[in-house]
Records
---
Amino acid sequence: MAEVMLLTPSSSSSSMASLGSSCRLPPSASTTKASLLPLISPSLCLSSVKCTLSSYQLPPLVLRQVRRRSLFRRTNAGSTVMTPTCFASDPELLKSARQDIKELLKTTFCHPILVRLGWHDAGTYDKNIEEWPQRGGANGSLRFEVELNHAANAGLVNALKLLQPIKDKYPSVTFADLFQLASATAVEEAGGPKIPMKYGRFDASGPDQCPPEGKLPDAGPPSPASHLRDVFYRMGLGDKEIVALSGAHTLGRSRPERSGWGKPVTKYTKDGPGAPGGQSWTVQWLKFDNSYFKDIKERRDADLLVLPTDAVLFEDPSFKVYAEKYAEDQDAFFKDYAEAHAKLSNLGAKFDPPEGFSIDNGPSKPEPEKFVASKYSSGKRELSETMKQKIRAEYEAVGGTPDKPLKSNYFLNIIILVAVLAVLTSLIVDK
């Protein structure tokens, strides 16, 4: 496939040249410069080196050096050189890639296929296999032709064609991260919940690391409930996650030429947007909400699709509890979906750093407690400004600040100490 960049040993020269550089190797690596140069350029990003370790064997000393993640400091003639932290993907470039994905969604309306791409890359995970990447999951292996040709992945080559320019623009972002970033962004941009994503996934390095066919769910198995449980339980997911994730069918259409299911066209799909045709699960099939559960439950519109694996959500007693809940409460659906989507996107992934990283700003720090003089006095009478200033001066003299109260009540301690001294004095005088 010409449109998909394959990072295999046979394509080392072109692949390594296309990998971006967002940081430099530590200066200490210069001691092994001679052994390193035949394999990589000193300006090559650490993440790119680590993403190809399965294909390119470096000397053990070099491996120890390039795996350093902390900031490296070197002083030379009074100057300081800082090397930025490098992970499997560049965090700043991931943020830029997300903006490009948002623009792509505005012009192509490709939300459904991007969601499906992320799901199908992650959904091959087998919790019973410990080794990576043999265990499957979110490792970017879906970019290889052998996996794209799996029946369940029909049409996903179009998703790769859409994302390839973004990958080319940000080569130090791994395919594994890009697929999951695109999937989560598509849900959010369609009006869905904010998904607590983390990034830093390594890529599988070649088609020999693709999972076998048959790992993904079928649309019309003989026993839909058992089939869904077999597939999702193998991933380590439960009934609640099965139903919540099924709710993503609120986006998109099924095309008979790809899946064998659905009508060629309906009144809801004849005019697009995007390529016309197919049969959608919902009327507004580019809007992420809980209408999927409402429409599946009512089943009043022949132009809306209901697969056997959809219908069973209101037939199986355990599934039905969640399906009924989501049909009535969109907030509950959004909450459970966001958690399930994030969990799915991490399945089988190998992260650098090991805990992954977020590209969203964390919650703002709580405002420090302000100094209020009256809190450190007794009685209900309002203190004069002069007294407040005096208390404040004493407060700051013992280590307090206007924005940071002392851990203990200094003034109360003084009062207690004076009281104790008074009692002791009276006892001595009495004697």
Note: The chain is about 45% helix and 5% strand.
---
Amino acid sequence: MNPSRLLVIALMSVVTGLASQAQSERWTESKANDWYAKQPWLVGANFVPSNAINELVMFQAATFDPAINDHELGLAESIGMNTVRVFLQDQLWEQDSKGFQQRLDTFLSIAAKHHIRPLLVLFDSCWETDPHLGPQHPPIPGVHNSGWVQSPGKERLLSKADEPKLKAYVVGVVGAFANDNRILGWDVWNEPDNQGGDKSEDVTAKVKRVNELLPQAFAWARSAKPSQPLTSGVWVGNWSDPAKESETTKIQLAESDIISFHNYGWPEEFEARIKELQPLHRPIICTEYMARGAGSTFDGSLPIAKRYNVGAINWGLVAGKTQTYLPWDSWQRPYVTAQPTVWFHEVFRQDGTPYRQHEVDLVRELTGRGTMAGSAPSSQPGASQ
């Protein structure tokens, strides 16, 4: 072979190798900020269709409902939302990777129709520790989020023998959509050290194991070379001093391409949290906020988010089987004989009317998007479980 051609091939190999390595590493600050500069101001909701008690019902073949997703994402679009945060579940991939991929593709097409780009959550440490496929129990009367499930469940989380299955899920689902512009990004792990749903005697082992798996989960996702950024939202503790951060928080902040956080506090606290994260010099998105009874509202937090160019994704869109319009204290005192004074989460009633007209008007005003139309049809589409 011509020596010049050999040199060209060698140089191309080096360049290809460097590009591949760059894709498998954390984004630089410059790359992250360049990406964010190309995005509109990101405003949306954590989305579970009102007929679903959890992410399994949302995506299982027997209960996946394109019509209700279309209808409710239309409501989000009508008030100027352009993103939603959506939870996936590892058992869906193991059970039927092809079918799950097809249903997720359908969902992404519906979202794209409404000019909405989802942030997809891979793992979640909150609530039911023993998730199972198939029919889910009905909502517990009067209780906030009574059917939510972890991913992975406790048994699979603590079992090192199950690591290959978790890796296959992450690499498989991220790889399938790695270059899909309909996806905003990947939220690798929701509140990884959350103790909700766990027995107190299991917490230490759980957090230790999460801290082992979390960097691996980021590495698995990066090995699929996604064009979208990775993140994991910090949610508790002191973020202003690395010496005071938990091990989990350190990993989240060190691995995330873009920074995300949760805050359900008063506006002063919301703004303070943003300021704690600004020294990282990366884009910031609040991926959970808006709990009226706790002091977190659209009125208080959303104008602050806009002022700092921080993305804002509230919890809940349409009141339904998650029952997250009920307060957290319903875990101790179910609201079975009386309704709460104010809704905790959610934006719309099931008939498509806003819980508070002022809120949806404010979202439209601040985003400069949406329409005054978008109310639901009189009949609710789709089946429920």
Note: The longest helix spans residues 3-23.
---
Amino acid sequence: MQDVMGLDALTLARMQFAFTVAFHFIFPAFTIGLASYLAVLNGLWLWHKEERYLRLFAYWVKIFAITFAMGVVSGIVMSYQFGTNWSVFSDRAGPVIGPLMAYEVLTAFFLEAGFLGIMLFGRDRVGPGLHMFACVMVAVGTAISATWILSVNSWMQTPQGFVLGENGQFLPADWVEIVFNPSFPYRLAHALTAAYLTTALVVGGVGAWHHLRGRGDNAAVRTMFSMAMWMAAVVAPLQIVIGDMHGLNTLEHQPAKVMAMEGHFQSHPEGAPLILFGLPDQEAQQMRYAVEIPKLSSLILKHDLNAPLAGLDTVPRDEQPPVGIVFWAFRVMVGLGFAMLGLGLWSLWARWRGRLHDSQWLHRAALVMGPTGFVAVTAGWITTEVGRQPWTVYGMLRTADSVAPLAAPAVAASLLAFVVVYFAVFGAGVFYILRLMAHAPMPGEKGAEEEPGPLRAAGHAPGLITEEAQ
């Protein structure tokens, strides 16, 4: 089969899926947390009747609408690849993953879509009670959507509850076991907390920007920064604890992935070191220039300094994941996680001293940390998915056996088209979001229904436009 620049169809198909998934994932990672933040803001407005909460709701709901739309579009494009580049996987695993994906649409997506319009445009049309209910339903819908998608992904990581048909298909035998597979609870908790932390960092970064621009006397700016720092201080340590539990679950069910994350090419019968940094050499099966702490990996993974840990020397070469990618992606995720913890603790110290809104160095740090949630969730996704290789369904179906019989030039052409279109269309969307973030929420902040541009037509009835003109 003809290659393109030395890349075969399988490699190009994997690159295309990685690109579209990584691009898509940043939007749900933001909207899951932002939907809950908007529901909280709306609840605080109804409870306290303080204008700053209404102002913040109107400010962030426009950003949510744009981000939600980009997430939907990128998700649709991504799902088409199951039938184009990965038709063999779709045929083999379809009896299991097909119904789960359908449940996500029938429950979560319809719930979000049904109440999204009321949330965006219904405050003065349906009454405060129903509008608040719509805000909660959109937030719940985003969480339910994540639940179904993560159930699918977790089943691919730790498959159970199926039987193999005569044609090699995975046929469901127990839906409870399929949905609640061994890695699902840990993966769901880890992903949801990551989404909430990502949103907190973005909101905190925007608040820090306006503080540094001399807008710290704006009540809405102070409120958004304070709420974001509370969230970071609470969720960052929780995320580290959940991540540790998730890692122990991964060690039990996917030991080769943990070996790659830790960079352990050799087994350690009397305690394994924690390798902080190094250059993995998979060909030579060794870690070059390793900077390590003796026996700490055994303490973390087994809670015993002298506990033995197996290495990749116990795994056949053709079943080892790409160690270099997994090793470094994991360190990016963990390093940023501890930086987030540091930011949360710093904010608590500044709050205790009464300098939360006066510490410019804290504001600079929060601004720098603003986009790091997206980097961390992408690094975590890379760790999870690349660490599963060479399998699509772990231990059962290889990636090389899942790809559609396509020619490399065809896959390369579609990959190039995706790259050009994504950066043009979504780049424009991100640019507009940054412009919205650049101005501080002001008294009388207009919501989505009042904003000029494409959103306006969906938010006004002709009679209301006439009344406003008067």
Note: The chain has a mean pLDDT of 87.
---
Amino acid sequence: MTYLSDPLTGADLELLDPLLTRQENQWTGMFHGLVLKTALQPIFSISHKRIIGYEALVRAYDPDNAGVPPAQLFRLPETDQENILLDRLCRLLHIRNYSTFSDQVNWLFLNVSPRVVASAYRYDSFFGELLRRTGLPPHRIVVEIVEQPTDDSERLRETVEYYRQLGCLTAIDDFGAGHSNFERIWNLSPDIVKLDRTLALRASNDPKARQILNGIVTLLHQSGCLVLLEGVETHDQAMIAIDAGVDFVQGFYFSFPRVELEQIQAPDFEGLLADYKNRNRIRLDPTQQLAEFFTSHFRRAIARLQEGASLGEACKDILAHHTVSRCYLIDQRGVQIDDTMVSEAVARTLDPRYRPLENTSSADWYRQHYLKQALAQPNRMQVTTPYLSISGVYMCVTLSLGFRYQGQLRVLCCDILADQGPLAG
């Protein structure tokens, strides 16, 4: 068995070299009697419609050339030294193979074991020496840190900073599963966040999960991170990835990992994006559709209010529509005037658990974006994207229209239940 120095240094490259063999254009490694090979899985940019990187994955084979699951391979090390040996052997193998690959532009994503990162060794000096000797520019490396708890978060932060100082990009892997949380994003400031495959699966089966996915992508972008969605395996999941606004995608739908490195090809992104655009054209812009449908109803209700009618009388026709949950009136300070008018259909289905939230008389809605827009642009209908109403705790879309009443601004608001089918009827 090969033993590494303590502390580990660039000299360990000479100890690992005998574990590698070159056959034609491909390097293989040897560990505990298993043959190790590099498989590359492409990572695609949706906007660029092409490959922008590859994740390097290890593939192990027994003496009979039967595949050995990666989980079984990584259970073989019995000591920290063996863990570090396997981790570094894989990285050396991947970089050697990638250096012979024809792609001279795109990124190579390399996994680093959390046990190695958080081990007793202060810095991964081996890696800097590896890049120097192979001539692979650091800016083409993305170091992936798997989302796991660590006993020494400060050492993890220092190690990630070391990779950054080398000139590499850093990525958090498997975000959204297990122990992942935004605290690690704030502490490590990764360049890329890889969303776990479970998010794509859940989003394809649950509309709420899809909204959460969209929100996570938005928050990560606001944190200064590029976002990659892993595990995209179906056409529907590809549509979800495009709609969520992720930057990069990876998964079997686009390409399987391949040991035959030169056989990787890009999928038909032109067709995929054309399908996405067609779906959106068929659906139409729901905000525009809502605005066009309800504008005349709003103007009639406002005319009645200006004539002295009560809110309930003025909004009778609006409240009768099957998609409408409630109407309310707000003054120019953002404070609600009188009680909310609730449709009969919603009144029959109010959840008693949320009764403390029902009375919104004198509530202050000034911080709501739809109100600010309505006050800034009177006589122009404003429509929100779907959001969770604090009044009824359900998903809704709010329409708002500013108008003048006795020299002051007023805003008439109406909540539309989300996912209630066609407007007509």
Note: Residues 223 and 345 are 41 Å apart (CA to CA).
